[in-house]
Predict the 3D structure of the following.
Amino acid sequence: MIYNQSLSLLTDMYQLTMVYGYWKSGVANRHAVFHLNFRRWPFKGGYALAAGLQTAIEFLQNFSYSASDLEYLSTLGFEPKFLDFLSKFEFVCDVDAMPEGTAVFPYEPMIRVKGPIWQAQLLESPMLNLLNFQTLIATKAARICQAAHPDPVIEFGMRRAQGIDGAISATRAAFIGGCESTSDVIGGKLFKIPVRGTHAHSWVMAFDDEFSSFEAFAKIMPKGCVMLIDTYNSIEGAKRAIRVAKKLKDFELAGVRLDSGDLAALSIEVRKILDAEGFQGTKIMASNELDEYLIRDLKAQGAKITVWGVGTHLVTGQEQPALDGVYKLSAVQNAKGEWQHRLKLSEQTAKVTNPGILQVRREFDGKKYCRDVMVDELLGVGDTGVNYFDPSEVVQIKDAKDVLVPIFRGGKLVYEAPTLFEIQAYAKQELSRLPASVKRFVNPQTYWIGLEKRLYEKKLELIQKLKK
Amino acid sequence: MIYNQSLSLLTDMYQLTMVYGYWKSGVANRHAVFHLNFRRWPFKGGYALAAGLQTAIEFLQNFSYSASDLEYLSTLGFEPKFLDFLSKFEFVCDVDAMPEGTAVFPYEPMIRVKGPIWQAQLLESPMLNLLNFQTLIATKAARICQAAHPDPVIEFGMRRAQGIDGAISATRAAFIGGCESTSDVIGGKLFKIPVRGTHAHSWVMAFDDEFSSFEAFAKIMPKGCVMLIDTYNSIEGAKRAIRVAKKLKDFELAGVRLDSGDLAALSIEVRKILDAEGFQGTKIMASNELDEYLIRDLKAQGAKITVWGVGTHLVTGQEQPALDGVYKLSAVQNAKGEWQHRLKLSEQTAKVTNPGILQVRREFDGKKYCRDVMVDELLGVGDTGVNYFDPSEVVQIKDAKDVLVPIFRGGKLVYEAPTLFEIQAYAKQELSRLPASVKRFVNPQTYWIGLEKRLYEKKLELIQKLKK
C-alpha cells in the first residue's frame, strides 16, 4: 500500500451504520457469505479479466482502525463501546477468489467472503472499489492488445487518469491485460513494469528549431531514440529526424512518433520516406485518442504503425468507465448456526441475486473453455447445469474445475501470490482458451454460463416464496 | 497527502528523459512558461469549474526525491551526477492559478508555471493528473446539482470509482461542485465533508424478514432513520416501514430510499402511501444510475423524490471520463535571458497552442460574467479582444479583472487556501454569475472568450512563420 494512513475508513458510511446495528442487535458474530460479481459484460464484449486481488489482499492485511480513525468516528456519534469493539478488529474471514488474470463472466463471483457478518459487511465498499476498477482496465487492455496484436501497446494514461491511484492502479491492470510497458514511472517502480518514454512537444519548442532539438535529443539518447515528429509538420519532422540520424555517428533512430493528424496516411508516407533513406529498421509509433476500434481501423487502412501508445481510453475505460460490480449477501447463519439461503428480489431481473455459498466450475476441453457452472457448496456439487439465460437448456458438465481458490482461511493468508509478470502470462493463457467468437468486439457470442440444477431450483423456490 | 511514499515519480518517463536532456544540454536553468488548459467543453456543456488546486499545492510542497526513488531511477540508466542534481530539487517556480471553484472555459490557462525549464517540465504529468480529474468531477457535480435543485445531492460513488484516490478525490471535487454530503467516510474525515448513509439490502437479508430488519434498524437509529425499501418489493417495503414507525415510540421515519425500478412511478405511489398514513414529513430518497439527465426527466415526470444519491455517473464522469487538459510550453528564455514566444502547430486546429505568459481577464457587469480575454504579459494588457472562434469579431473589454492569482513565488507558497466549504460557496457564486444559456445541458450558448489583439496578432505571426 502506498497510503500513509489507515484505509479502514475507505468505506461507505452505511457499512459502519450496519455494523453498529449488527453489534447492537447481538448478531455481529453470526456468519454470513457475500459474493462480488458484475452484471453487464464490460464494453459490450464477451468476457472480463479479473484483476485487483493483490491490492485487495494488501488492503486486508493492513486493515485496522487507527486512533485518528476512531476519533473521527466518535465525532459521527458512534458510542465508545462500539469504537472499542472496532479497535479490536482482527480479520478472521475465509476469502476465496479468482486469481488475477482469470477470464470471468457476468454473475460469477470473483471473490467470496465468509465469516462474521460484521467483518464481511465492512468489506463491501473497499472490495468493490479495488476490484471493479482493475478488472475493468485489465479487460480494456486485453481488447486493445488484441487489436494491436502482434504489435506492443504502451500504457500512456497518467495525465488523464482519475486521480493519483486512478493512474497507478490502471498501470498495474493494463499490464495484466497485456500491455508491454508504461510511461508511468511510479507504476514502474511499484510493480516492476518496464517504463518507456520519448519526448514531448515542449522539448522541440524549447529549442530554436526542430533540427536542433532532435540533434540535442539524439546526443543524450544515442540508443533506442524515438523522436516525436509532429510539433510543426509530421512529414518535415520525419525528414529532419533522418537528417539528424545521418549526421551523427553511432546513433540509432529507433523510432519516430506521430501524435496528431491522419495516422494512417501519415504513417504510410513516413514509412516510405524512412525506407527510401535506408531507415527500414526505424519503427513508427503512434498515439492520440487510440482505442481498440481505432487501432483495428488504422490497421485495416494499412497504417504502418507497429508500436501503439494508448492513454485516456485505456486507463479510464472511456466508453464504460465503471464495472457494475456488486457485493451481495447470499447466506447467513441463524441463531443455531444453521445456514440460511438468502436472495434479493428486484423489479429488474438482472438485479436478482444468487443464493448459497458459491463456487464456479469451468469445463475445459484441453484447448478451449466450454462452460461455467455455478454450484452451491451448501447444496453440493453436481454435474447438471441449467443455462443462466435459457433455463430450458440443461446440460451435463464434464471434468469441470474450481475457479475460485482459497486466499484467506480464518483471516490468515494462505495464497501464494504470483508476480505481476506471472499474472500477465496467466491472463494471456486464459485469453488463448477463450473461443474467438467470445473475443469479438462487436456482438460477441455469449459464453455458456449456468447454475447447477439444485441451485437453480433453490433460487426459483426462494423467488416464489418471497414474491408471495 | 495520504501517500506514504514520495510522489516525485508520479510522472511520465519522458519528463525525466527531457529533464536529463535539458541538464545534459546545459539549458536546465533557462526559464520557461507552461500553461494547463483543456480544449473541449466537458459533457458538451458550456463551462467547467476549476478544481484540484489544493491537492496540487500539497503535491508541490511535498515534492522531493527519496533515496528509493533515486535508486529506482539509477536502474533506469540515469547517470549518478544527474541523480545528484535531482536529489537537490528545491522548488523555485512561480505558479499562478484559478482559485478552485472558478468558472473556466476551453483554452484558458487554469494554472501557469514559470521557472527553470527542468522544474516546470517535471510538473506536466502530475499537474494534469491532479487538475484534470477534479475539474471534470466538480463540473459534473455542478450539472447534477443543477438538475436536482433545490433538492440535495449526496455523492455515493466509492464502489464504482477508479481506484482508491479516484474515490477520495472525486468526493472532494463533488463537494466543490455542490454536493451536500458524501457516503465516503475517509473523504469525510480528510475533508470534513458531512457523511451520510442508510443501509444496504444485506441488512434486510441478514434478518428473517423485512419487518424485523426495519425494526432492528429503527431501534439503532431512532433519529434521521432512512430505510431502503426495495429489497423485495418497494411498495410492500414502504408499508412495512410505516408499520414499524407506527409501532415504535420516539421514532422518526426521516426517509425511505428507492434503489431500483421505475423511480418516477414508485416515488409517486410511495408518497401517496406515506401521506395517507400521516408521514408527510418522511422524505423519499432515490439512487440507481442517476445523472443530470435522468434527474431532470424524473422531475419532469412528477417524481416525488427530494433527496438524490448519485454514484457512478458523478464520480467517473461516465459519458466523459476524462478532461482533455494539456500542459504546453508557451515561452522560453534564450541564452541572453530574453523571452521568446513559442507555439505548437498541428494539423488539428484545436491543438495549436497559445504563446506568451498568459493571464485571463474576465468582464463582470455586476450580475453576470460577460467575456473573458486572454492577455500576454510579455505584450502587455490591452482592452481590445478578438473572438477566439470568429476573429472578425473585435470588441472593447471593460473593467476586466485577473482570474489567475499568485500561488507560489520563487517556490514559496503565497496563497492563503480557502476551506472546502468556502470553495463550495465560491463555486456557487461563480455558477450564479454564469448566464443561464451557458448552463443549459443541451446545446448551450458559447461563452465569449477571446485573445487580446496583440496576442492574437502575435499568434498569427508565429503560425505563418512556422508554416513556412
In short: Chain B has a mean pLDDT of 96. The longest strand of chain B covers residues 326-333. Residues 239 and 273 of chain B are 7 Å apart (CA to CA).
